[in-house]
């Protein structure tokens, strides 16, 4: 069944695709700004601990279920459910997952379009096309619409090519490009005046803040959301993994790459913020709080780049190129979730499914743009603050409470015959059964309480 659906041909291809799914705009701008707002290095320390104690076990739940079923989330959760009632709950969870993934992509495509527009604006300034550059960074329906459609077209074209020629091939190209670009930007920004102040905030912990409930909950949320958990992206990628692969090792590699990129982004964004402050660009509000993430990316950093002359145009182009790649590697996994369901459950050809679903998501994006003030923040809150944690809880519930433990062990033995004696098997089953659901519910409770 797996070969007929498509399968990752190499471990590198899978790790790049899965890490690309996890590494998105949240890693590049969300994690560093959360770190800056929550004690810098203290947040970083707590985040690193929680990423391996929450994100990795929850990631493994999705990968194991997906690889076992070699199918979409709806079919997979039905397959591991022993009763008719649980099968219905599993199918409902899977359907909710691809709906939420589609809604996330609907607003994500808008933001990604802004990234592309800012990248092209820097290129236009380099070519002396000042009017075009100004239009590209001005907020307007036509600009937003054009670049949302451009981004969705890129995403659709990659997914249309299938698992090997589309997802794996382009992830193996885009992720190394992302890493090289990020590293180059970090090296350059650290040479600028003011960067050391940001580096101190990021690396010198105030241990008294490490146990603050607000900081811990923020780090929990960052660890969970940075891995694209809950909506079935990792489950569907797991379904394309060969039975010969050692899943705990693969999951560990994906987690390590994702965390490394988030941490590396901190070495870029926090020093850049303090470089901006050194250059006279304000990064704090009147109350002393750090400015919001979107203002940082689309106002403060461009202002910083403008103070750097010609070099600033190069840095601006490179930075927004990086952000565009990060967005694209995540969007292809989001679109694959509803596409896989439609192909497997309804027998629709991939090309047709991709264009129909991608077009429908673009229509939702258009509706958001037409009612931006009302819908944009609402869709983000419904999907990421409320739906994603609940779906993550359900996936842990199925892995920890519904699926037979012996069946899980048999699945893991396919890639590692001695897995029963491993530290992973001694900890993970009870951990995903008791600890992960409680942590996820804590994140959800914090979302409700604001």
UniProtKB/TrEMBL annotation:
Give the record's keywords alphabetically.
Answer: Membrane, Transmembrane, Transmembrane helix, Transport
- Main location class: membrane
For this record, an example GO cellular component is: membrane
Record-linked Pfam families: SNF (PF00209)
Report the InterPro entries cross-referenced here. Answer: Na/ntran_symport, SNS_sf, YocR/YhdH-like
Q: Where are the transmembrane segments?
A: 12-29, 41-59, 95-125, 145-163, 175-196, 216-237, 249-274, 310-332, 353-380, 386-404, 430-449
* Keyword Transport applies: yes
Q: Which domain of life is it from?
A: Bacteria
Compartment list: Membrane
State the annotated membrane topology for this chain: Multi-pass membrane protein
- Known PANTHER family for this protein? TRANSPORTER
Question: What is the protein name given in its UniProt record?
Answer: Sodium-dependent transporter
Organism name: Halioglobus maricola
The lineage, from the top, is: Bacteria, Pseudomonadati, Pseudomonadota, Gammaproteobacteria, Cellvibrionales
